[in-house]
Amino acid sequence: MRNFVILLASVCSFLPLQIHAVVLELRSQQTAVGDSITLNDVIQSSQGVTSDDLASVIAAAPSLGKQQTWSRDQIEKVLPATIKQEPVEWTGATSCVISRPAVEYSPRQVRQLITAELSRNLPAGSDYAILEIPGLDTFSIPAGQIDAKVELAAGALRNEWAEATLKFSAEGHEVVTQNVRFHWAYTRKVWQVSTAVGSREALAPSSFQEIEVNVLKIPGLLEPATDFPEGEVAAHPLAPGKILMENDWVEPVLVTRNDLVTISYDHHGISITVQAKAMSNGIRNQVIAVQNLTSHKIFNARVVDERSLVYDQ
Q: I want to staple 232 with a disulfide (CB 3.0 to 4.6 A). Which of 19, 51, 249, 297 is the partner?
């Protein structure tokens, strides 16, 4: 028995203390969605491989509609350095065919995408149409479950010629981007000045007429008024024939500097009204400084109506 133990110890002294090996089971085929291939894409299962190594990119994916064949030897050459340090044992297939199936995306589908995005950005019932998308040919996108998103360029809603970026994503990763330029028309009712309006004059519908125009032909980037700005005043003189735009009106000044105003205070069942002097001009909901006529104390109040304010705590 003693001789057997000595012999066993002698044999063990010539063996490695511990043998490390990485075991990789190769897939026979895989479908790529994105632009790159990770080790995890080609491996069915593994032993002794970390999640970081499995997520490492080993190659670029084939072009849309193409395929690549990867042998075990080819994969070994691009393995992460941490795996190359250990012996590799292969199981499974001898090679993996990676395909990237694609489908054709037509200009008609692009038109539908942009039309839907315009619809989300325009008032309900708007009359608009894409007239042309020059220079756009059919292009490829990955087959399968693809999410499409349209990003309109700045100013697209106010220009006859506009730009948009189409982004196609799979599993949360952007896979194809396509930039397009399109020509479109957008007709709706607008307000046109029929009788001259002076600066700071109250806007009244009787001074305007509703007409239908292609708003994209109106110069400037501001939007024409959709609803009539009742209760507002002209920011500057408005001549007959002018289309009413967003910068053509302002809030009326309800309180003028040095006006005698009424301040209301209503809190916890206590209601008080005091007279004060406005220290500056004020429009509706604007907080301005006022001075109590009796105590001469200055405090803040919010404008609610003509020469009428409420105490602002």
A: 249
Question: How many Cβ atoms sit within 10 Å of the Cβ of residue 234?
Answer: 21
Q: Supply the CATH number for residue 59's domain.
A: 3.10.129.70
Domain span holding position 296? 253-311
pLDDT digits (tens, 9 = 90+) for 149-175: 999 999 999 999 999 999 999 888 888
Q: Are 246 and 279 part of one and the same domain?
A: no
Rounded to whole angstroms, the Cα distance separating 254 from 261 reads 10
Is residue 11 pLDDT above 50, yes or no?
no
Phi/psi zone of residue 263: left (φ > 0), alpha (ψ -120 to 50 degrees), beta? beta
What is the spatial distance between Cα 96 and Cα 68, in angstroms, rounded to a whole number?
8
**Full-model pTM:** 0.67
Calculate the alpha carbon distances from 288 to 223, 251, 256, 309 in Å. 31, 15, 11, 9
> How many separate domains does the chain show?
4
Beta bridge partners of residue 132, listed in sequence order: 183
Q: For position 258, which CATH number holds? A: 2.30.30.760
State how far the Cα of 173 lies from the Cα of 146, in Å rounded to an integer: 10
215 with 186: CB under 8 angstroms?
yes
Return d(Cα 136, Cα 155) in angstroms, integer. Answer: 21
Phi, psi of 146 (to 5 degrees): -125, 135
- Phi, psi of 92, rounded to the nearest 5 degrees: 80, -145
Which H or E element spans position 86?
Answer: none
Question: If DSSP codes are grouped into helix, strand and coil, which group holds residue 222?
Answer: coil
